[in-house]
Design brief:
The chain is mostly helical. It contains ten helices and two strands; from the N terminus they run H-H-H-H-H-E-E-H-H-H-H-H.
């Protein structure tokens, strides 16, 4: 038990050298003639030789080591993905880079419905056009998406009915997205705009009004 406890409490760098396993103490001796070459103890063998509390501490020590390695592998995968993405973007032409930037803007700022204060995306709608953010204390209008402070009923009522069926709410924001989209498209160069519309054909379908989608796709052809 003492050997297992001592090994399980070692610094992470020392445990990593032996994969968290327990080895014969003679294996690390200075005298090569006396050093033990036996493999590390199997978990099943340890379970028979030591007390249950000690075995649990040993397992927890190995789990901690494995979790750290998994996290390091995930970080390395993310680093490699970022490196590849950077290389991809660097190889893009000027037009392609502008298309990528425009696509990101549309996906984040035009398509998504966000709280006007904290910018949290929201999906829930219970029928009342006076909306409240679940992430911050903001109340905002379901028509114009304006931050109304602590009460949005007055602003919502100024635009129409306070309550709206969900399908009607969706149609309202299809029209709203369409207006913002056309305003933004008007700021882009014609070559960027055309390539962007081709790439976003599927994304925009069902997000903006059908007639506007048809017109924009005809423009992209």
């Amino acid at each position: 038990d003492n050997l297992v406890d001592a090994n399980s409490k070692e610094e992470m760098r020392l445990r990593r050298r032996r994969d968290g396993l327990i080895q014969c103490p003679a294996r690390v001796g200075d005298d090569a003639a006396c050093a033990c070459n036996a493999p590390a103890f199997a978990d099943a063998d340890l379970a028979k030789l030591i007390s249950l509390p000690t075995f649990k501490r040993y397992l927890n020590s190995r789990i901690e080591l494995m979790e750290q390695r998994v996290q390091e592998e995930m970080n390395e995968e993310m680093r490699q993905w970022r490196h590849k993405e950077l290389e991809r973007l660097q190889k893009l032409s000027e037009v392609q880079r502008k298309v990528e930037a425009a696509k990101h803007h549309i996906e984040e700022e035009v398509i998504c419905l966000r709280c006007p204060r904290c910018r949290k995306v929201f999906f829930d709608f219970d029928g009342c056009m006076s909306l409240s953010c679940g992430n911050c204390p903001c109340y905002f209008c379901g028509y114009c998406m304006k931050d109304c402070g602590s009460d949005a009923h007055r602003c919502a009522a100024s635009h129409g009915e306070l309550f709206m069926p969900f399908l009607q709410f969706q149609e309202h924001h299809k029209e709203r997205r369409g207006r913002y989209l056309q305003e933004y498209l008007g700021t882009l160069r014609p070559d960027v705009r055309k390539m962007l519309l081709k790439e976003m054909q599927g994304t925009l379908q069902g997000i903006i009004a059908d007639d506007l989608h048809v017109r924009l796709m005809q423009e992209a052809c």
